[in-house]
């Protein structure tokens, strides 16, 4: 044994000195490359997402104004206003209401067919609506050429407050253009709208490359167009001063292009600097590893010797061996976990013994409780009379009893969905309803979310049987209500009845039985349900009981929320 451990120490020394550095170098280089690759992908992803965000924002805003212009151009009130040329405050107010409810405001104008302003939000008449030349170029010309479409036109913005984009629609009446509706966006508002990310430049252009708005004037050439290096480009674009990653998106039927540009030139500098730093760190790592290898190997293998010795004791069946390690490192954590594990194993062994015994006892008592000879005799007698009096109903009763027996005696199933257990309980309630007639009634209210929760088999029916057995005492009728809800990751099943209830002494006695681990009384159903729940899910779950003499009984079963539809465990809890 000692030779073996000396050989292991030598292996650790060699691993530290020869092999530890190589994986570290490989992992570090891989991490280095992955980090830069990840950073690059992050920049690309953010650039793309920001581009889509800006495109959606601009597209939604312009689209909203296009829709409004189209709607107003077809509005009967607008056409009547142009025809009669009388003041219409309601129409004027509708423009203000529409513009004011939007975050991005635009100046609006309504012109007649001679470009006389009829409605306006600004005293400054835009240049595109002045003079006879207006009918030859610009937005007016485009509206004349496309009277059925809401047009978009760029305007040369000489100042920050000058209009840089116009949305317009011709007002067509009886086949001719009777007027024009326009909305003007100034350059400042559009720049503010796209100036949300200081690391990414944004340029908005028309389909000819003319800049409508941008956050970096260096990207605009002397003709007012986006720099030719970037026009219609996507991906990495090299320029004379820097490298940019460019994402380009066309919106509004390719009338508008959105460019987002992120500088990636600093990547090269970071790559070189990080490479130099890593080379220095590798040199220091090699020296440190060499000096530390012998000391670490000797000190750590002594702890390993103690761990192996303790494990050998456990292999021989001795669960009382404890590790005492005070190294203030991972080995101490391992030792504490080992000691805790031994304690948990011993507790688990005892719990498994108790669970196995209780499962067998619970199964036997459940069968005795659910289908005692008295219950079967009464049911069969009922069926016998029904065969003579009502054969159709007798057939239904036989099917229900068959389903009831098949479900109950299936010993391979220990857990089912709440929906299955409730369906089984309905069969039982159907028989009892037929036996007692109008004297017995019931209601079932199970939340949809609770139906596929996993519960122990036969968890509801024993409680109802108790209610019927004891609730009818001195009573002419009985009603049982079954409810199931999910509350804070806990499944709560409540069965309450309006029966005779319990005297305080009886209630106290049953609660005492539920709190204990042994039941020598005749109160089998409640105890078995409670005990099975605790053995499967822990002591924080189980049955809670409340009752008033002559005032009914409420049984509350709490279970953890465990989803899984109709998943079942064979032979025990999963």
UniProtKB/TrEMBL annotation:
The keyword Cell membrane applies. It is found in: Cell membrane. It holds the Pfam family HATPase_c. It is a multi-pass membrane protein. Residues 298-350 form the HAMP domain. One of its GO terms (molecular function) is kinase activity. Coiled coil: none annotated. Its main location: membrane. InterPro entries: Bact_2-comp_sensor_kinase (IPR050640), HAMP_dom (IPR003660), HATPase_C_sf (IPR036890), HATPase_dom (IPR003594), Sig_transdc_His_kin_internal (IPR010559). Keywords: ATP-binding, Cell membrane, Kinase, Membrane, Nucleotide-binding, Phosphoprotein, Transferase, Transmembrane, Transmembrane helix, Two-component regulatory system. The keyword Cell membrane applies. The chain crosses the membrane at residues 16-40, 270-293. This is Sensor histidine kinase YesM. The lineage of its organism: Bacteria, Bacillati, Bacillota, Bacilli, Bacillales.
């Amino acid at each position: 044994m000692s030779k073996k451990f000396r050989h292991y120490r030598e292996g650790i020394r060699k691993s530290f000195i020869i092999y530890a550095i190589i994986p570290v170098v490989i992992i570090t280089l891989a991490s280095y490359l992955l980090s830069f690759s990840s950073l690059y992908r992050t920049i690309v992803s953010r650039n793309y997402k920001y581009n889509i965000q800006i495109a959606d924002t601009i597209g939604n805003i312009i689209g909203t104004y296009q829709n409004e212009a189209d709607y107003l151009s077809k509005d009967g009130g607008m056409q009547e206003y142009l025809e009669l040329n009388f003041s219409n405050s309601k129409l004027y107010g509708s423009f203000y209401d529409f513009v004011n409810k939007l975050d991005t405001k635009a100046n609006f104008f309504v012109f007649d067919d001679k470009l006389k302003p009829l409605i306006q939000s600004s005293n400054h008449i835009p240049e595109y609506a002045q003079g006879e030349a207006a009918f030859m170029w610009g937005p007016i010309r485009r509206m004349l050429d496309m009277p059925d479409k809401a047009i978009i036109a760029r305007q040369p913005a000489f100042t920050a407050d000058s209009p840089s984009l116009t949305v317009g629609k011709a007002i067509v009446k009886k086949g001719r253009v009777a007027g024009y509706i326009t909305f003007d966006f100034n350059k400042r508002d559009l720049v503010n709208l796209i100036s949300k990310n200081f690391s990414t430049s944004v340029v908005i252009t028309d389909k000819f490359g003319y800049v409508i708005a941008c956050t970096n004037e260096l990207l605009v050439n002397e003709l007012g167009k986006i720099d030719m290096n970037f026009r219609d480009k996507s991906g990495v674009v090299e320029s004379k001063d820097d490298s940019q990653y460019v994402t380009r998106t066309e919106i509004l039927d390719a009338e508008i292009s959105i460019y987002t540009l992120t500088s990636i030139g600093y990547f090269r500098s970071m790559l070189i600097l990080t490479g130099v730093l890593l080379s220095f760190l590798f040199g220091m790592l090699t020296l440190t590893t060499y000096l530390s290898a012998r000391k670490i190997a000797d000190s750590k293998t002594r702890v390993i010797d103690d761990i192996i010795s303790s494990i050998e004791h456990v292999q021989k069946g001795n669960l009382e061996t404890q590790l005492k390690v005070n190294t203030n490192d991972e080995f101490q954590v391992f030792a504490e976990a080992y000691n805790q594990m031994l304690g948990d194993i011993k507790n688990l062994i005892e719990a498994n013994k108790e669970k196995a015994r209780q499962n067998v006892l619970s199964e036997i008592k459940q069968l005795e409780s659910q289908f005692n000879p008295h219950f079967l005799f009464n049911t069969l007698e009922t069926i016998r009379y029904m065969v003579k009096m009502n054969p159709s109903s007798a057939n239904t009763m036989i099917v229900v009893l068959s389903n009831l027996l098949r479900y109950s005696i299936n010993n391979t199933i220990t857990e089912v969905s709440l929906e299955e257990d409730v369906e089984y309980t309905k069969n039982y309630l159907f028989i009892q309803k037929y036996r007692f007639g109008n004297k017995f009634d019931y209601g079932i209210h199970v939340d949809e979310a609770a139906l596929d929760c996993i519960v122990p088999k036969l968890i509801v029916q024993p409680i109802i049987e108790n209610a019927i057995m004891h609730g009818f005492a001195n009573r002419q009728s009985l009603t049982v209500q079954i409810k199931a809800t999910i509350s804070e990751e806990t499944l709560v099943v409540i069965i309450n009845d309006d029966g005779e209830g319990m005297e305080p002494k009886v209630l106290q006695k049953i609660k005492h039985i539920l709190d204990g681990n042994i039941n020598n009384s005749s109160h089998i159903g409640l105890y078995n349900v409670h005990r099975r729940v605790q053995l499967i899910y822990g002591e924080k779950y189980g049955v809670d009981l409340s009752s008033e003499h002559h005032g009914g009984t409420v049984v509350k079963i709490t279970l953890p929320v465990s989803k899984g539809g109709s998943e079942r465990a064979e032979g025990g809890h999963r």
